[in-house]
What does this fold into?
Amino acid sequence: HCFQHLLRHEGFEVTYLPVSSEGLVSPDDLRKVIRPDTILVSIMAANNETGAIQPVAGLGTICRERGVLFHTDAVQWFGKLPFSSIHQFNADLVSLCAHKFHGPKGAGLLYIRSPFLPQPIQFGGGHENERRAGTENLPSIIGLTEAIERFVSTPVFPTKLLSALTSELLVSIAGLDGVTIRGATQRLPNTLSFTVKGSDGIALMAALDLEGICASSGSACSAGSLEPSHVMLAMGVDPLESNSLVRFSLGRDSTRAEVEFVQETLPKILRQVRRLS
It folds into this structure.
């Protein structure tokens, strides 16, 4: 949406990169679309709907070779995968969000590689070295810092356990009639998305909720939207089938018993929804 704003209101030209059926950006496609007047490339490190992990370090190398600034949205990535240094993203700008690794909601962070200094987007006082005017939300900043420090020393998410549980869930779901797993093989350890041919997404969400199963029909950013997932459409999924998208996201408190309950209950839910669709 921020790039739509740049296109509509700021006069910039925006090029959208195609993705594969797994939702991945091709390095060759990136090389082809970079123009002499390209100033910025922005690519998610990990997709929020499918969990697909992009090869951001390699993409960043291409941008650096061409003299183009590279930004990566690592909001979903951070806290779920091994972290050694912010430099592993090979990016000029990296954005993070605290609540994705159990910090406070509403707190975010933008890493800016020196010496690049972006123009502020709001003006007033000289807060944050004149980069963002307005009184700082100190409690949230402290909470964000504490969450980062805890993650760097000990992973926020039990990655091995979540990866095993997600894999078990994937195997059982992939065998169900009409189900297609969406996203790349290289995905976040806690995220699993799939579509169900011939089923209605709203009905699926309602049926899952009645059984006490937490799921989403896409990203939280587009919650309540009746439009097909733009992520699925970009991956070439049929618009009708895109509306049946279901996303399971496991957390640090998720248990094997909960996963087994989903495995036992989901086939019945899919049969019920198909009869009604």
Q: What stands out?
A: The beta strands are 40-44, 69-73, 93-97, 108-112, 179-182, 191-196, 246-249. The chain has two domains: 2-153, 159-276. The chain has ten helices and seven strands. The first strand starts at residue 40 and ends at 44.
